[in-house]
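Tutorial, part two.
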Amino acid sequence: MQFRSLKYATPFVIYAASLYSFTNYGWTIFLPLILAFLLIPICELFIPTNNSNLNAVEEELAKNDRVYDLWLYLIVPLQYCALTLFLFSLQDPKLETWEMFARTAVMGLLCGSFGINVGHELGHRNKKHEKIFAKMLLLTSMYMHFYIEHNKGHHKNVATVNDPGSARFGESLYRYFMRAVPATYFSAWTIANKEIKKKGLPLIHWKNEMLQFQLLQISFLLMIYLLFGGSIFLHFVAAAVIGFLLLETVNYIEHYGLERKMNPSGLYERAMPWHSWNSNQVIGRLMLFELSRHSDHHYIASRKYQLLRHHSDAPQMPTGYPGMMILALFPPLWFQVMNRKIRTETSVDNELSPT
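Running the prediction step on this input gives:
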């Protein structure tokens, strides 16, 4: 085992802070949110970026080190333990209403950073158990259709008008939410229905993956409602919504305003590193299992998180993911910063062109 792999224990700081929130009272419930959206963004303004890549020997060692995978596998039971603790914690009669909502926001943070983010990484793997783990994690945010649309839609259509997850130039985060959230869901249905038709089966069939996901999610919701009642059920739904809105905010900042060119043949050029915004801020890379090295992820989607590389021709975010997510909440400021970068930043062979 390499000691290099141990640095990916960093995200468990947020997890530990979340467990503290579910068992304590007062303003300290907000500690995970303060850490994620205040302390980390401030630190990333002052900590230099790390643009270095692994050499061939280091990459081979990292590829064969099982600890990198074990971190991800561990998150599956931990996520369900946190969700269970969260649901039971809301039964505490000593809780003020605002404390219940604070705990809900913290659970939403876990749904986004642990549930969907790690589910995304595992969803790109080939092993059957890893795909099952991915779906289990996405279930905690009621966003299982992401497994279909992201892998079979987003990666194919990224940075084109055909991709609901690619934010258009001049599109605010809030307009993006209104368009992308339903469009992603219906796109997943379209993909699943096409696949079931290719198998010569009717759309309403147990092998239709989207139908499977709906039944799983409805059953999961029903179980929570029956076990914990209507009020706690609504808090879980709110946490799930926060989780998938965090995901969609990340999608927004990762692809805002970038566009692939169409070839004379009518097909889009291959997705290249300059079609995704990249971030090399050290803390954000660790906290999100290298998700912020997004340019290389879209260039080679099968590359595991510990192997993702920096590309000098990829457009770079002004700061890390947490800071960019906060900036996106204020469209005038977002446009002022990002539209200028889109107009001025170029790759070696390609100019970034707004949609």
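Confidence is low (pLDDT under 50) at residues 346-355. In part three we will examine how such features are distributed along the chain.
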